[in-house]
Amino acid sequence: MRVLIVSGSSGGHIFPALALADLLNNSGHQVQMVLPQDDLKRRIPIDFAQTVYIQGARLNFSLSKENIIGVYSFFRGAWEALRIIIKFKPLVVVGFGSLNSISLIFWAWLFRIKTIIHEQNVIPGKANRLLSKLVDKVAVSFIQTNKYLDISSDKIVLTGNPLRRDLVSIERKEALDFFKFKEGKFTILITGGSQGSHRLNATCFEVLSSYQHKPDLQVIHISGLQDIAWLTEEYAGTTLAYKLFDFFKSMQYAYSLADLIICRAGATTIAELQKFKIPAILVPYPYAYAHQSANAAVLEEIGAAEMLLDTDLTVDKLRNRLQEYFCNHDKITTMRNAYQKILVSDATTMLSNEVLRINA
User: Fold this and answer.
1) Is the domain covering 172-341 a CATH 3.40.50.2000 domain?
2) Where are the domains of the chain?
3) How far apart are CA 285 and CA 198, in angstroms?
4) pTM value?
5) Higher pLDDT, 290 or 233
6) Which fold has domain 2-160+345-357?
7) Which band of pLDDT confidence, cut at 50, 70 and 90, is reported for residue 42?
8) 267 to each of 51, 67, 125, 275, how far by Cα in Å?
9) In this predicted structure, what is the pLDDT of residue 17?
10) DSSP β-bridge partners for residue 53
11) End-to-end CA distance of the chain
12) Are 18 and 48 contacting, i.e. CB atoms less than 8 angstroms apart?
C-alpha cells in the first residue's frame, strides 16, 4: 500500500507521524513523509529517508505583510502538495494536524483518496477540526476529545498517541551506567519540549542550584538549543550531579531513570509519561494553554501529576513543590500507581491497523 503522511513542524506532530511511518515502512508498505520546509531540520533530526518538503506557511487573521507572505506560502505549498499527490499516487493520506496538512488532505478528498487524521491533544487544533468533516476517519489520543468534534461518533476511533519504537523501558542499572549516575539518588528530569523553554530552564536551574549540596540528588536537564550555552556555564559552577543536553534522542534512558519530571504538557510528552509511569509537575505552555492544560488535566485528575501554571512558575513555588517530594517519597509511589487507572495501548499499531483497514 502507498501511504502519504503529512505533519506540521512541531515535535508533537512529527514524532507520532514518524512512529507510524516507521512501522508501515518496516511492514513492507510504501510510505512517504511530507513536512513543511522551514528551519525544521535544524531543530528536530528527521531520520526517515522517504521525506519530501513543501513550502510551510503561518497565517493569522490580520492584514499585515507577514500574513500576505503567509497566504502566498500556503498556496505555493498547496501547489507542491498537488504535485506530490499526482506523482506518488497514494491509496491513503494520513494527516497529523497543523495548517500545512490542510492542502494535502483537501487534494486527497477531491481525488476520492481515503483519508484519516490523527489528533494528539485532548482539544483538537483548528486544522483538524476543519478537516474532520472531510476525512473518512478521525483517530484520537484521548476519549475526552470526542466532545470537541462536531461529527458522527462512527468516524472517531480511539488509538492513543503513537510513540517511537525505541521508547522501551531500560533496566535501572543500565540507565544509571548510561548517565554515569549513582544508585540511591533521587533523579529529576527537566525538559521543555522539542524547542525548549527559557522560563522553565531558568526557574528549574535556580531552584536546583539551591539544592546543590544535597547528596542524594541528580539531574537530567534537556534545555533546547537556545539555552544550552549559558546553562553549560551555570551548571559547571555547581556541585550538582547532572547531565545537560540541548536535544536528547535516547529518551528511554532518561524516562527509565526519572523519579520525577518537570515539563510542559504536550501530547507526546503526556503519552510518554503514561508509558513510563513518571510522576510529573506539568507546566502547560502558555501560548497553547487550552491544549496543554487539558492534556495535563488528564493526568492530574487521576493523581499521577500536578499542574503548575506558567504564571505560577516561580522559584519559591517550585522549591516548595520539590520539598514535598524530597520529604515524602511515598508520594512518588502513589503517583506512579495512579497510572494504573489509564489503559495504555500500542497506539502505533492501532493507528497502523486503522490506516490499512480504511482502504480494505
Assistant:
1) yes
2) 2-160+345-357, 172-341
3) 11
4) 0.90
5) 233
6) Rossmann fold (3.40.50)
7) very low
8) 23, 28, 12, 13
9) 95
10) 35
11) 10
12) yes
